[in-house]
Amino acid sequence: MKAVILLSGGLDSSTVLYQAKADGCECYAISFDYQQRHRRELDSAKKIAESVGVVEHHVVSFDLRLWGGSALTDNQIDLPSDRSVEEMSQNIPITYVPARNTIFLSFALAYAEVVNASRVYIGVNALDYSGYPDCRPDYIQAMQEVFRLGTKQGREGEAIAIVSPLIDMKKTEIIQLGNNLGVPWEKTWSCYAGEEKPCGICDSCRLRLAAFQELGLKDPLSD
Q1: What is the CATH number of the domain that holds 105?
Q2: Inside any domain, residue 161
Q3: Given this model, what pLDDT does residue 82 score?
Q4: Domain containing 118: what range?
Q5: Span 178-192, average pLDDT
Q6: Strand, coil or helix: what is 211?
Q7: Beta bridge partners of 161
């Protein structure tokens, strides 16, 4: 069974890649260089892909700075920092990249159809308080219909399935799953700031650190 895995190099997508491998899939990884502020994550994606032993790992490049609209693609927009979980959950954050997962899943779908994969794995999570609209169950359900209607494979046979194993999991549960699967956390990257070391104060860093602390574990990327 072949599967395409969306791999950013972060905690969630790395866990999903390891899960796909545990599911017995031949793994084809796809990552994206969209000139994001935190392109440092692509180094982690490469390391994680190598650690699993994927069949192929493609990095697709395009420039979402052309229109910006997010703190991740426009350096003139400040990253939110030192926010509580309650503050993070109030509104869709400025780190939301417009339609990003729709763009990513479109590339993954095309790739999957070419290599004859039956699954596309994505590490979206609806419970991490980030509030992204393209990380929610109704979005995944809608994209599954696109997969069915928008491809030759979907029209003539069985549609490629979107697999989102983390969608209803807490961040602590994802870390526990990753531990069971043997994910090397030291090779992953979550920080939005794009520096050599995690900033520790952006939303992504704070959610990650809080989850490790709640489990009584040390994040290998923390000082």
Answers
A1: 3.40.50.620
A2: yes
A3: 87
A4: 2-214
A5: 98
A6: helix
A7: 119
Average pLDDT over residues 131-155: 95
- What is the arithmetic mean of pLDDT over 46-54? 98
CA distance 165 to 154: 22
Query: Are the C-beta atoms of residues 185 and 11 closer than 8 Å to each other?
Result: yes
Residue 155 lies in a domain: yes
H-only helix segments in the chain: 11-22, 41-52, 85-88, 100-115, 137-149, 152-156, 171-181, 203-214
Q: Please name which of 3, 5, 11 lies closest in space to residue 130, comparing C-alpha atoms.
A: 11
Q: Rounded distance, CA 176 to CA 101, Å?
A: 25
- The alpha carbon of 34 is separated from its chain's Cα centroid by a whole number of angstroms, namely 14
Evaluate whether residue 220 is within a structural domain: no
pTM of the full structure: 0.96
Mention every residue, 6+ apart, whose C-beta is less than 8 A from residue 170.
127, 128, 211
Q: CB within 8 A of 142, min separation 6: which ones?
A: none
What are the tokens at 120? 């596309």
In whole angstroms, give the CA distance from residue 127 to residue 52.
26
> What total number of domains does the chain contain?
1
Helices and strands (H, E) in the chain, number of each type = 8, 5
Q: Would the pLDDT of 27 be above 60?
A: yes
Q: Which amino acid is at 114?
A: V
* Contact criterion met (CB below 8 Å) for 132 and 96: yes
